Amino acid sequence: PISYTAEWKQFGQERRGYLEWEEYFMAMAFLSAQRSKDPVTQVGACIVNSFNQVVSIGYNGMPQGCPDKDMPWGKTSDNPLEQKYMYVCHAELNAILNKNSSDVRGCSIYVALFPCNECAKLIIQAGISRVIYYSDKHKTKDGTRASKMMLQMAGVNYREYNITYRSRIILNFDTAETVCPNPAATAHANDVDASNATAHASAATAHTSCADDDEEGNISQSISNEAPRAVGEYISWEEYFMAVAFLSAQRSKDPHSQVGACIVNEQKRIVGIGYNGMPSGCEDHMMPWEDSDQDTIYNKRYYVCHAELNAILNKNSSDVRGCSIYVTLFPCNECAKLIVQAGISRVIYYSYLQPQLPQQQHLQQQQQQKRDCIATTASLVLFDKAKVQFVNYK
């Protein structure tokens, strides 16, 4: 048998500071909320199975086929039919209905705000077994109290999100950095900033509020809020899907390159998410993480599963034919084979190269780029021959 425990440790260690599962899933919920066109309240939900795979995501909004601009978004009218409450679909509802798996029984749902009684019914009937919520600010309201009664009676476990995690995650597409301020900053709802550096870090920057009305029932903004959020106030589909890819990359334990991928079907539903890492069952701290130009058994290239591979295998639908894949880095030839054979028809990539590494790693980066150049060229040939469209996000 091959001895690896003592030998491999000298060839690098896994990255520290990666997102914990709980942070990742709650951040996914908050990021999804940035798609909401509700001018006051943006809420997201993320459903996760027992294998820590995201099986569905949702955010609050009007029903499909109901034009946002024609629907009421205010809440001050004396006529209930002119208030948003009669029409808006909550994040939990959309997440449950957006699933591509056969069901969500036994899954967990991460939500910004404790579910209302109507969403609690859906959660129970869908077979979801656990609710992790960020805010319970409406705990004294009858709807929330009824929700908790039903969840308890149905045996659905619910608990508050662990606020000791980082309070702010910034996704800068050029550096893919994760910012971890003082945990004391969690006095407010977690912010997930999806900042597109090529757009001067403003186009996709947004803050999530997990609250609806304040406790006195006052409107939290000075405007009437009768109209949906304007273009530019909510993130576009393209920004959203690429941001999901960058967010997933922050789960990677690779100390040199963190890559993410997000697969989307023709209905704009996310059907697969992945990031680069060691194979399941291989303990990260036992694996080699160095990537030098030496072609040895201690090179991570022999072991790391790329983001595209994991996204395709993590799919929650029967197949991904006709889907698009959003990737932070252009696929290598091995991933190109997977993409072509899986039937994916479109690749949207952010960069050909990794984000700029520290100066001491620059030589190593150059050596890596020489190897990658051949693999990238092969990918281009495969995509061209297989009629797979590839587009630069920038």
From TrEMBL:
<feature type="region of interest" description="Disordered">
    <location>
        <begin position="205"/>
        <end position="224"/>
    </location>
</feature>
<dbReference type="InterPro" id="IPR015517">
    <property type="entry name" value="dCMP_deaminase-rel"/>
</dbReference>
<comment type="function">
    <text>Supplies the nucleotide substrate for thymidylate synthetase.</text>
</comment>
<dbReference type="InterPro" id="IPR035105">
    <property type="entry name" value="Deoxycytidylate_deaminase_dom"/>
</dbReference>
<dbReference type="GO" id="GO:0004132">
    <property type="term" value="F:dCMP deaminase activity"/>
</dbReference>
<dbReference type="GO" id="GO:0008270">
    <property type="term" value="F:zinc ion binding"/>
</dbReference>
<keyword id="KW-0479">Metal-binding</keyword>
<feature type="domain" description="CMP/dCMP-type deaminase">
    <location>
        <begin position="236"/>
        <end position="361"/>
    </location>
</feature>
<dbReference type="GO" id="GO:0009165">
    <property type="term" value="P:nucleotide biosynthetic process"/>
</dbReference>
<protein>
    <recommendedName>
        <fullName>Probable deoxycytidylate deaminase</fullName>
        <ecNumber>3.5.4.12</ecNumber>
    </recommendedName>
</protein>
<dbReference type="InterPro" id="IPR016192">
    <property type="entry name" value="APOBEC/CMP_deaminase_Zn-bd"/>
</dbReference>
<dbReference type="Pfam" id="PF00383">
    <property type="entry name" value="dCMP_cyt_deam_1"/>
</dbReference>
<feature type="domain" description="CMP/dCMP-type deaminase">
    <location>
        <begin position="20"/>
        <end position="158"/>
    </location>
</feature>
<dbReference type="GO" id="GO:0005737">
    <property type="term" value="C:cytoplasm"/>
</dbReference>
<keyword id="KW-0378">Hydrolase</keyword>
<dbReference type="InterPro" id="IPR016193">
    <property type="entry name" value="Cytidine_deaminase-like"/>
</dbReference>
<keyword id="KW-0545">Nucleotide biosynthesis</keyword>
<dbReference type="InterPro" id="IPR002125">
    <property type="entry name" value="CMP_dCMP_dom"/>
</dbReference>
<keyword id="KW-0862">Zinc</keyword>
<comment type="similarity">
    <text>Belongs to the cytidine and deoxycytidylate deaminase family.</text>
</comment>
